[in-house]
Design a protein that fits this description.
- Helices cover 58% and strands 0% of the residues.
- By secondary structure, the chain is an all-alpha fold.
- The longest helix has 24 residues.
- It is elongated.
Length: 124
């Protein structure tokens, strides 16, 4: 709950702040006339310098665009053939040579000469 005395105190503080702001700010009419006078006194030198600068930037962009030509078909093909993927190294894994060949259906991975007969007291 607010107290009437607190409201009056806040009102007085805000009035003092408003009065201090008015004392520091210039009158509106003076600001308005100075802005209007500034618009009328625009220097032709500034306008010419701005126009020359814009034309200079436009000329630089056109010159840069004309110098940068597209490569011919043969040059583009050579560039494309020379390109290497930056992530190709991530695809190399151990045993990748097995993946590069097609297995033969009649071949076995187990060689017969490596097989040893079972000897011993096992049941037949």
């Amino acid at each position: 709950m607010t107290n009437d005395r607190d409201d009056e105190r806040l009102q007085r503080i805000f009035d003092e702040l408003r009065h201090a702001d008015r004392a520091m700010s210039p009158p509106f009419a003076r600001v308005w006339t100075s802005v209007a006078a500034g618009k009328r006194r625009r220097s032709p030198r500034v306008m010419i310098a701005t126009a020359v600068g814009c034309v200079g930037v436009a000329v630089a962009v056109v010159v840069f665009a004309l110098q940068r030509r597209a490569p011919s078909g043969l040059e583009a093909a050579a560039q494309l053939a020379a390109w290497r993927s930056p992530t190709a190294a991530l695809l190399r894994v151990p045993g990748s040579d097995i993946l590069r060949s097609v297995p033969s259906l009649d071949a076995s991975l187990v060689r017969p000469e490596t097989l040893q007969p079972v000897t011993g007291g096992g049941t037949p």
